[in-house]
Amino acid sequence: MRQGDFVTRISYGGDVVFKIERIEHLKAILRGVDFRLLADAPLTDLTKTNPKETLDHPRSSSPEFRESLRRLAVSQVQLQEKNQIAVNHKQKSQPAHNSYFEVPGRVLHLDGDPSYLRKSMQLYGELRVPAEGFFIPEAQMAEALQRLLPQYKPDIVVITGHDGILKNRQSVSPSNLSSYKNSQNFVNAVRVARQFERNRDSLIIVAGACQSHFEALLRAGANFASSPARILIHALDPLCIAAKLSYTPTRETISMLDIMDLTVTGLEGLGGVETRGSYRMGVPGIQHTEESV
């Protein structure tokens, strides 16, 4: 076994594909390929899997995730059609071509995994979501946000990476933050973001990863978080929520019930509180929107 190998754990029936991040004293530190899961295992518990059988980007080609992307794209088209109908109705005597412009919510995405970050940034671009992304180790996210939030002033911040319940500890309690690999780091980051902007509609926070302490993240100030049922969440579920919020008008309020079908893991994987969107329509239509607004 070497660093970079793709492996599964024999004791878990090979249910999750991991990549070996490093090896320490006959133990491998593992990062999930399909899921936002950080784990460790003895080298004797690992078996190699063919890298050709894994995707370059986690589950981006799975039917469930393709359906999530399709629904996001459809919702954007429906919003554009709704906007155009409203403008046409008010401008009956004038041509309505390019008669409005869009100001979607801006996303600041912090990710503890560089491969997930690259895929997320690619998908933000495909979905026309203005986003800035940074690879930040989970333990450094709170400090990084103190610098990045004043600089970028986002409407939505995504705080994600890897997490998991430490099953090898003698006293593991799902209610105790010390039972999780990175939930405390995510909570610290959420607190910094909420101190920067206390209004949950002015700064929307999406936080957490696989098996994260859902309740603690909400108490810290997150709008949406993982994982209510302490399950493994799809690697790109946080992106789907952020993309939907970016294209939800500020006058509309959405809940997890409205967007659960945009995620792969649904209400077991993510939950949250009612939140106003961050999308604004502007009139009349202008060119070079990014430079003008």
From TrEMBL:
Q: Does Protease appear among the keywords?
A: yes
Q: Per the UniProt entry, what are the Gene Ontology biological process annotations, in alphabetical order?
A: proteolysis
Q: Which InterPro entries match?
A: Peptidase_U57
Its protein name is Sporulation-specific protease YabG
| EC top class named in words | hydrolase
Q: Which gene encodes it?
A: yabG
Query: Which organism is the protein's source?
Result: Paenibacillus allorhizoplanae
Please list the GO terms describing molecular function.
peptidase activity
Is Secreted set as a keyword in this record? no
Give its E.C. classification number.
Answer: 3.4.-.-
Which Pfam families does the record match to this protein?
Answer: Peptidase_U57
Which segments of the protein form a coiled coil according to its record?
none
Task: Write the record's keywords in alphabetical order, separated by commas.
Answer: Hydrolase, Protease
